[in-house]
Structure formats: C-alpha cells, structure tokens
Amino acid sequence: MNEKVKAVQQILHDIGHSSNIVTLPEDAHTAKTAAAAIGCSVAQIAKSIIFKLEAPNTALLVVASGINRIDENKIESIIGEKLAKANAGFVKKQTGFVIGGVAPIGHSHPLKILIDEDLLQYETIWAAAGHPKTVFQMAPDELIRMTDGKVVELKE
C-alpha cells in the first residue's frame, strides 16, 4: 500500500471511521469506471477538484458529485475570490496528493473546502483515498465532519 494511502487509512482509523480503503482495477480511469468497479452510481463519486486562489500558495478543494459540472462563477461569488486553474505541481504541493488521488482529508496545507450539496442526497458516497486507484466509502455527513467543509450549490 502506497504511503499516502496508508496515511489516509490512519487518519480514518484515528477519527473512528470504520471504512476500509478499496483498490480499484487498473482500467478505472474515470468517475464512471470507478463507479462501475465499486457498484455505485457516478453521482455517488465525490470527486476532488483543486483550484488556485488569489492569495499566494492558497488552494480551494471542491468536493463534487461525479455527475456535476462545477460553475466556477458561482464558486467565485461564494468565496469572494477569483479562481485559477491548479497545475499538477501546485496540487501535489498543497495537498500532498497527485491529481486523481486527492483525498478530502490529510492535506499538506490547510485548504478551504466546499462540498457539493448534491452529495447529501445519497446514503453513501466514495472519495479518493490518496492514490488515483484507491477510494473509501462514507456517509455525506461524515464528509462534512471530516473536512469541516461548507455545503453549497456548485453545479451549473
């Protein structure tokens, strides 16, 4: 098991979360293929999107339903800042994770976190666990507690 995945599993254990990390098959490259591999709907995949904020070295994590496109203008109005695209180096530096494996917890630096309100309609959701081929299951209210994220309407 990758060191980042072990760290996420340890955080989950430390906070009393009982879910084990699941390793996806090699061909699970998208939310759709990940959902098929674990037997959930694409909407139950909690995808992590990192944006660069105006302040130097400041990041925003958006945790969104796998079927939703994010309205960046809406996010800018919610947080009162302009968003910029985050490249792979910025994502790795701010979160400690590579793109595709950004967990909602265990980041290298504190992040502002927004959570898509559409995730709250599901009994369980799945998020990345530190590597592009790993995920863990939780209830939406657990995601809110783990991240202290703000629940907002994000989709276009």
How would you explain this protein's 3D organization?
- This protein has a single domain (3-152), classed as YbaK protein (Alpha-Beta Complex).
- The protein has helices at 3-14, 31-38, 72-79, 88-95, 140-147; strands at 22-23, 45-53, 59-65, 83-85, 112-116, 125-128, 134-138, 150-152.
- It is α/β, with parallel strands linked by helices and 156 residues long.
- The protein has five helices and eight strands; from the N terminus they run H-E-H-E-E-H-E-H-E-E-E-H-E.
- Strands 1, 2, 3, 4, 5, 6, 7 and 8 form an eight-stranded mixed β-sheet that branches.
- The longest helix is centred in the N-terminal third of the chain and has 12 residues, at 3-14.
- The mean pLDDT is 93.
List keywords for this structure.
156 residues, alpha/beta, YbaK protein, 8-stranded mixed β-sheet, 28% helix, YbaK/aa-tRNA-synth-assoc-dom, aminoacyl-tRNA deacylase activity, YbaK/aa-tRNA-synt-asso_dom_sf, YbaK/EbsC family protein
Q: How many separate domains?
A: 1
Specify the number of helices: 5
* CATH homology superfamily name: YbaK/aminoacyl-tRNA synthetase-associated domain
SS-derived structural category: alpha/beta
| Broad shape | globular
Q: List low-confidence stretches.
A: none
Distance between the termini: 37 Å
Give the proportion of residues in helices. Answer: 25-40%
| Percent of residues in beta strands | 15-25%
- CATH fold node name: YbaK protein
Instruction: Profile the largest sheet.
Output: 8 strands, mixed
Using the coordinates above, name the CATH class. Answer: Alpha Beta
> In angstroms, what is the radius of gyration?
14 Å
SSE pattern, N- to C-terminal: HEHEEHEHEEEHE
GO molecular function, one term: aminoacyl-tRNA deacylase activity
Protein name: YbaK/EbsC family protein
Domain YbaK/aminoacyl-tRNA synthetase-associated: 26-145
Pfam family, one: tRNA_edit
